Amino acid sequence: MEDATHTDAQxxxxxxxxxxxxxxxKAATRLRIAHEAVxxxxxxxxxxxxxxxxxxxxxISPRTLxxxxxxxxxxxxxLLSAGVEALVxxxxxxxxxxVFSEALRSLSVExxxxxxxxVQLVRLTRTExxxxxxxxxxxxxxxxxxxxxxxxRIGASxxxxxxxxxxxxxxxxxxxxxxxxxxxxxxxxRSLDDTVREALAIxxxxxxx
Length: 209
Fold this sequence. Notes:
This protein has about 210 residues and is mostly helical. It is about 60% helix and about 0% strand. It has 10 helices and no strands.
């Protein structure tokens, strides 16, 4: 009869080293890095800010920072994607038969608690090419995600022209609204969310299922 006991080589060994990080923990770390990056970029400019400074401010090692981001400018991407995430959430929560304009009234960029940092970053896009590149790429990368959510709700393929065009229209409206709010400060009490909702309502006038 074959011996069922484990040999030393077969016996399970206890896990060593650090436990794997949860997705929530990773997201929190990415956001902490982003906030420190925008603080440093705003205070002294991108060129005068090193990745080591960002890592030190975020209380992580430079090696850990590079595991999350491939360049120091990329560190701000979690903040720049907040508006897109809010748009996708609003579209995903749209009830059957609900028109675009009604669904988008619930959208809130400010709910994330990061609106101040987002506005500071978008202001930097006018003078910092690296940050501008991340901002534009964030929206380009998001367009297929927006199209996918729209397609799912209308029973189409994300590759169909209608959801792709609708996604492009909403995406551009969102980017234009955040830029308008950041670049042209007003004293009329309008919030970032007010500006975003107005822009999306204008865009939604030409959209239908």
